[in-house]
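hey team, just a heads up i'm posting the complex here instead of the shared drive bc the drive is being weird again. everything in one block, sequence lines first with there labels, then the predicted structure for the whole assembly after. its two chains so it's a bit long, scroll down
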Amino acid sequence: MIVWDSGSPASHLLRILREYMTRLAAQHDVLAPASEQSYLGRMNVARQTDEVSWEPPGGVLIWMVVGLELVTFGAGIIALLVQERDHSLEFAQARLLLNQPLAFINTLVLLTGGWCMACGLNGLRLGRSRSSTLWTLAAVVSGVLFLIIKMIEYRQKATHGIGFGEDTFFTLYYLLTGFHFVHVLVAVVLLGMLARSVRLGHSHAGNPQNFEAGAVFWHMCDLIWLLLYPVIYLL
Amino acid sequence: MNRVVTRVWLFLITLTTASWLLAERHAAPSLLLGLAAVKFTLVAGWFMELRHAHRLWWFLIGGLLAVILGGAALVK
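-- predicted structure starts here --
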């Protein structure tokens, strides 16, 4: 073992090198505590050091997806309401054929799924893998329930002979809710993969980024439905 | 279980029930769209944790919400 005198140039050089490596590691989260690697941890560090952090939860890319999806569905919602202005009687009659109680239950189911996912993320950050897996699986169950209820609704329409091209309202209804249905389906698969990843230890308090991005995608389905629900069913 | 998130979820459930009951009583569209905006803000802020993010993201998402629901209210 090589021992240098504390005042020697070699020990001075070693100290500088150690400080540099520590600073470099802190910048890249290598030596940072596990909790500091999550989004909330990074934001806390940024606040303490007065740094401006532009990073949103889950990363910039997933929020670009959220923005684009909101623009797409927003355009569809405005298109539906513009059409309603020209065909108000037809739209009022078409809305009577919708199953409002099922849509109401579906909204509660989706919001409950969002709550489960938020609890799952909280559990992951606290290092409670089992709790996080169970909450995520509960969110998956709520997603599946949403899809089943939506399929019951579609089946009721089909039984009454109401198809995609029935009229302007139902064309837009199927387009908007169908597109949202596909999003929830993708999110359910994604959450299933995340639950498995937590169970296998790939996602944990020290590596929560994928989980955070998946949670944002899931909540995006909530956001879109919260806009669709009043416009299609309630107005 | 996170207590704050649980309270937000209960509030969301209450608001959803209120909006359904108001729609049954033929409430004004602007009121129903306003309730949707509140629910949207709660989900984005607390479930998606946007309240911890830089203000820029609030402005972007809030701006999109304002354009969509404002446009909807104007058209309606």
